[in-house]
Amino acid sequence: MIEVTKKTVERAMLIALDTKEFSKETVEEHIEELEELAATAGAETIFKIIQTKRGIDPAFYIGKGKAEELAQLIELNEINIVIFDDDLTPVQVRNLEKLFNRKVIDRSGLILDIFASRAKTKEAKTQVELAQLQYMLPRLTRAWTHLSKQYGGIGTKGPGETQIETDRRLIRTRISLLKNKLEKIEAHRMTQSSGRKGFLRIAIAGYTNAGKSTLFNLLTEANVFAENKLFATLDSTTRSLDIDDTHKILISDTVGFIRKLPAHLIASFKSTLNEVRDADIILHVIDISHPYFEDHIKVVDETLKEFGSAEKRVIKVFNKVDIVSDKSLIDFVKNVYKESVIISASRGINISSLKTMLKNILNENIVEEKIELPLTATKKASQIHEFAEVLKTEYDDNKIQIIYRTSRQNSEKIKKIIAY
Predict the structure, then answer these.
(1) Would you say 233 is a known binding-site residue?
(2) Residue 131, annotated as binding a ligand
(3) Residue 319 annotated in ligand binding
(4) Is residue 321 annotated as involved in ligand binding?
(5) Is 235 annotated as a binding residue?
């Protein structure tokens, strides 16, 4: 993946389609978020267009007539890039680029571009490159190659500049190599996590820019990059939090979610997002000051469901209370969301309540057990280390005594191993 360090501001036109599937307010909120994404990528939005239409036009998405009308507007206002709020088919991209004579990308392409510019570690770069190549593969066209060379900028970072002229066979080979690389990374991550079985594991998840990294830094005194922008950080980071003199909690910060998150990106970031899958508890951080925070909650809940984490215990952490002007909103949240806490991570408001909640969960979920095994049961004794933190092991003439600490769930697994 090639990193582009020189940043030029591109003049963008944003286009969304209103098919009456959503309310007008929702469609407007979607395109406002697209504007924020465009700004994060380095574009200045000149026009936001919402086209009302019964259905999607298979050739031009918004219809040929509307596209021809916008082509004149694009030319007159020196628009560099046209960004659509939904995914476009290769045919639609080809037709629109030919008509507009400008770069045309969709929301997925824009998000991938942002991820390409934010990826810092080898793992993140590998994940982004894999997602980019999978996104690019069905979109290989002579026209796209011409435009990427001519215009550069947003939508052409990473493999787009070096791989677009190669044939599909070479790209598939590269995809295979990247998948193998990520499998090795995931195996290494699983080896690292095997030593954490005795701890309560918490993952911080939430909509992008909800304040996850700020909360993580506050709780753990870490120095994870936090910025008031979408997708400020891509890599998961795990730190310990001392709840009392004898117990620790392991907390992981994870990449933020967003509506219409590209499927390729979710698949590529599987190893990073496994921190969510493997957690005992999920802290779902929500920006309570955002006018559409309930919509954000639904997006995150649906994404967690995709990872098989829907049944996990989730604590909703409503952040940024310090900038909420409507105090009735706080009463609403308290009444509707029972297992929740309202905080400000940036100002440290009500963090003690969150820590108390975590301590109570620790007391509920972490147990210390003492078991006895015959001396011949060395395999079972070894398996206990996979599911628990072994505190003490003693041997006498005919038995092994083991004292371990682990979650209640893992303790049940250990008891089944012993009974088998």
Answers:
(1) yes
(2) no
(3) yes
(4) yes
(5) yes
Q: Is 232 among the annotated ligand-binding positions? A: yes
- 112-169 pLDDT, tens digit per residue, is 888 888 777 788 888 888 888 888 887 765 444 433 444 456 665 555 444 455 567 8
| Residue 253 annotated as binding site | yes
Q: According to the annotation, is 299 in a ligand binding site?
A: no
CB 107 within 8 A of CB 37: yes
pLDDT tens, 356-372?
Answer: 998 888 888 778 888 88
- CA-nearest of 57, 58, 113, 53 to 83 is 113
Backbone torsion region of residue 402, taken as left when φ is above 0, otherwise alpha when ψ lies between -120 and 50, otherwise beta: beta
Domains of the chain, start order: 10-169 (3.40.50.11060), 198-349 (3.40.50.300), 366-419 (3.30.70)
CA-wise closest residue to 98 among 76, 84, 86, 82: 82
C-alpha–C-alpha distance, residues 19 and 52, integer Å: 6
206 among annotated binding-site residues: yes
pTM metric for this prediction? 0.78
Determine if residue 208 is labeled as part of a ligand binding site: yes
d(CA 343, CA 353): 9
Residues in the chain: 420
Residue 257 known to bind ligand: no
Q: Is 308 annotated as a binding residue?
A: no
Query: Alpha helices, DSSP H only, in 42-158?
Result: 64-76, 90-100, 107-118, 122-136, 142-151
